[in-house]
Amino acid sequence: MESTTEKKVVEEILHSGGCHCGKVTWTALAPSTVTVVKCNCSICIAKQYSAVIIPKNKFNLVTGHDDVQIYSFNTGKAKHPFCTTCGVTSYYFPRSNPDGIGFMTYSVKSSSIKEIICKAFDGQNWEASFAEAKYFHEFSKE
Ligand SMILES: [Zn+2]
Asked: Nearest to residue 51, comparing CAs of 114, 127, 106?
């Protein structure tokens, strides 16, 4: 008899991506159908972020360790690295999931993303929205 309490196993594949000039490269383990939080906070709007947040241990920065500069503001909890040559932010450290990392769907070069599910998030009222958006807390959990 099948158990109904079993956790649904979603197959994960290795996405590879990086910045525009190619100095920053990485791999990220995630499903081929990814969920992106479309947030309207100041930086997500300014940079048009489209981030998939995953546990940190599923992200591997392959090259570019010394080619990024970190931008930070407000609470300073989120870190926004950008390539010092081409300026592209291809991944970031989210305030929402301190044990996670977000990679940008538009920086994936491996044509491995099959579908993007968007969830709207009111980042202009960050604290209240985050308290309500339970799904948002789980992205960095195994
Ligand atoms: Zn670059």
From this structure: 106
Q: Beta 25-30 vs 13-18: how paired, if at all?
A: antiparallel
**d(C-alpha 116, C-alpha 69), whole Å:** 28
Enter the tokens of residue 8. 């649904």
Q: How does pLDDT run across 12-31, given as a tens digit for each residue?
A: 999 999 999 999 999 999 99
Q: Which residue has the tokens 């960095």?
A: 140
How many angstroms separate the alpha carbon of residue 104 from the centre of ligand 1? Answer: 14
Class of domain 23-137: mainly beta
User: In a 10 Å sphere around its CB, with 0-12 CB exposed, 13-18 middle and 19+ buried, how is residue 50 labelled?
Assistant: buried
C-alpha 120 – ligand 1 centre gap (Å) = 29
Instruction: Give the pTM.
Output: 0.90
